[in-house]
Each structure stands twice: as structure tokens, then as C-alpha cells.
Amino acid sequence: MAIRGEFSSRIGFVLAASGSAVGLGNIWGFPSQVASNGGAAFVLMYLLLAFLLAYPVLMAELLIGRATKSNVVDALGQVSRGISGRAVGVMGLITVSLILAFYGIVGGWMISYALEAVANIAGLTDLAKWLVTFSLERNLLFCAFFMLLTVGIVSGGVVDGIERWSVRLMPTLFVIMLLLFAYVMTQDGAMDGLKVYLLPDFAEVLNPNLLISAMGQAFFSMSLGVGTMLIYGSYVSHSENLPRLGAAVSLIDIGVAVLAGLVIIPAMYVALNNGVEIFNASGQLLAEDTLIFTVLPSLFNTMGLVGLFVGLTFFLLMSIAALTSSISMLEVPVSYVVEHQKVARKKAVWLVAAIIFIASATILLNFDSLFGFVITLTTRYSQPLLGLMLCIFAGWIWHRNDILQDLKTADANAEYSWFWRIWPWYVKFVCPLVIAVMFYRSL
Length: 443
What we know:
Helix 1 (10-21) crosses helix 14 (305-340), helix 4 runs antiparallel to helix 5 (83-121) and helix 5 (83-121) runs antiparallel to helix 14 (305-340). The protein is an all-alpha fold. It is globular. The protein has a single domain (10-442), classed as Amino acid/polyamine transporter I. The chain has 18 helices and no strands. It comes from Alishewanella maricola. This is Sodium-dependent transporter. It is found in: Membrane. Pfam families: SNF. It is a multi-pass membrane protein.
């Protein structure tokens, strides 16, 4: 039997897990949610709920992963001591594979938009136009290219693939974001956007719809419920202090989301200053795909030659964010095929990636009916239910003493820590209730 991989360093794990959490949900989703939900009031509640809800659930996944040292199906089977855990694990495998199927499509778009800037810089205007025109050929080609990049990294295993590339990609992502922020803040109109982003309307803070949106964003942006954090937790040494590592991952994830808002919300007001329409008919800021593929490219077009380089930098940032998440998603089913079905890693990676690409192609061939449906099915329904089940396993079924013994391997005084005084009852009572309320409201 092959020896399981294990992260070789603390920073390697933190950057890999942060990379999993930092995806398009942070850089596309978070600023869009801010734009749609009262600016700084949303930011304030997101920061609060990220620690009150997302961190405890993140710790449930990491603890289950490290204690069992198994793929998601076998890990939940061990913890639940019965068939229900394995069934939830299989549901997690299917959900994460479907998320990667649509994520691969969107990741491909990010790469094609980055290359459009390169084509324009090179004077290849016909190619540039093709790269940003919605077509089956373009979508299939760039989805396949994005999946090949993901396969190339995951094939290398935990240390030589996931850790090596996370340690390179995550600092690059931070540098690009800081450069974009510095540039955007030199433009006219940026300060107006910064005020919207940083000055909360306290009357909006307790708006139920804002709270539900902030809760959902905090939960989904950390890749919770689908086994990515569980599998990364299984690659962590027993000598590491897991609550501290989890806190570091949460802080980086939240930091990237907040930094993305600092780039994108002021950029929208720069666009407004340059004559680009940023509000819809009802007076709300444009969000999501309209923001990324219409508002910001229109802004870059008003900047002349420098706009091509800013556009290239922005879509390179989006491509890196998508890739750091896709490698963790692919690792979830791959680890199951390697460990449970005893298939060699490289063969398992290609096999799983091929199946997911077929799912992506099916979505693209039936785009109008399937794309939105798959996103809603996985992120609105399946992910919260899986997160709820993880809380039930960690809080109600898994023996508390087993959890404590695992924590004590790294910290002999773990039972006297603040984490152990609060987390067991919090994940048992508060998290399931909050997730259930969120799920009910989303229906």
C-alpha cells in the first residue's frame, strides 16, 4: 500500500488550505455580495460570521481529516461508525465533482480574458475578439486547458504538487492584489468607492437578508462541506497545533476577500467616473458575472494602453484564484480512488479529471438549462446540508474523548484551552442551528 502524503511544512499547509478557501468566491463573490448588500454593513457582518460560523465548521473538517488520515468517504465512515457517514462522504464526492465541473468552465473564461489582453497588446485584434466571444469552441478549449493545469499540479502529489504550487501561487496572488489596489487608488472616483466599502450604514446591519447573505458567503468562501478541508486536514502531522493552523487559514481567507473588495468596489466607482454604467435599473450596483465580464473590461477599455496591462493583471489574478481552489477540489475524489480503489495516483488523476471534464462538456452543450441549475444545486442546497451533517458528526456522534486525544498529541494542555472550552458545544448546538436557519431562509 502506498504511503499517504503529508504536508512537509506548516506554511505549506496554511498556503494550500488558504488557496483552497481563496477562490472565485472571494474575488468574484465577495465584492458582488458587498455591492448587492449595503456596502460596509455587509463587510462588518461577514467578518463577524466568518469567525462565529465558518471557523468552527472548518475545524470540524480539519479534525476529522487528521484523526482518521483517510479520504472523505472512509473518514466519515469511521467517525459515524455506520453507513450514514459513508453515504454523506459519497454525496460530498459527487458535490465537489459537480462544483469543479462548472468551476472549470469559469476558470477557462478567466484564462481566455487574460489572453485577450495579451492578444490586444500584440495587435491580434481578431484573436482577441474570439477570446472574449461566448462560443462552444472557446468554452470547451479553455475548460480543457484549465483542467490540464489542475491535473498537472495534482499529479505531483501532496508535497511535489499541491504544496509546491500553493507556496508559489498564493504569494503571487497577494502581490497582484496589492499592486492592483495601489493602482486603482490613484484613479479619480476611487475614494467614493472606498467610502461605500468602509463606512457602514448601521441601520442595515441587522437586515435579515443581509445576515443570510453574509452567512452564506462566509460559509461558501472557505470551501466548507465538500471535503476539501477534510482531505487537507488528513495530510497534516499529528504534531501540529490544528486550532492555530485553522485560525491562520481563516484569517488569510478573510483577508483576501476584504482585499478583493478594496480593489473591486473602488474600481467600480472609477468606472463610473469614466462613464461606465455600474448601476442596474433598480439602482443597485451591478454584480457577479456582469461586474467581472462587462463593468471591469469596460473600465479597462477607458484606460487606453495601460488598461490592457491592468486587465491582464486582473484576469491573471482571477485565474490563479480559480486554480488554487480547483486543485483541492480534484484532490477529494482522487484521494478516494487512490486509497479505496487502489489505483495509482497519476492514473487516478487523469481518470477523475476526464469524468469531470465530460460533466463540464455536458453543461456547456446544455448551457442555458444546466449551468445555473448545477451552481444552485451544489452551492445553495448540497453544500449547506453537507456542512450540517459534518457538524452533527463532529458534535453529536464522534466521541469527544477521541477528539481531545487527537488535540493532545500536539498540545498536552489542550483540554484547558479556550478552543476546547468553546468549540465542542458550539459545533454541537450553535452551528447546526445557524446552518439550518440559513438553509431554510435560502429556500
